[in-house]
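Technical note accompanying the year-one report. For the benefit of new consortium partners, we illustrate the data format agreed upon in the data management plan: each record pairs a sequence with a structure-token string. No post-processing was applied to the example shown here.
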Amino acid sequence: MKTKDKQDEQQRHARRDAIIRAVFRELVYHENYSFESAYIFIGDIWGLGKTKITQIVKGEDECSLSEYDLTKLAVILQRISK
């Protein structure tokens, strides 16, 4: 059972990390955020420190993000921001 829990946790972290990488790239390269501002933005949302965010951003994608899931997430975030 512990192996299954560990695999589930690794999968959740891989998905979270892929989203964080995508958000970081979007903020820096398309929204013209400074690296520091992007770290702060991501840290505020996911509750992570700069060191952990840096590790995530420098890492490799272990899973892909589906356009459908990202669109669904964007819609949910839009809805709760009102």
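Partners are asked to follow this layout when depositing records. The two ends are 41 Å apart (CA to CA).
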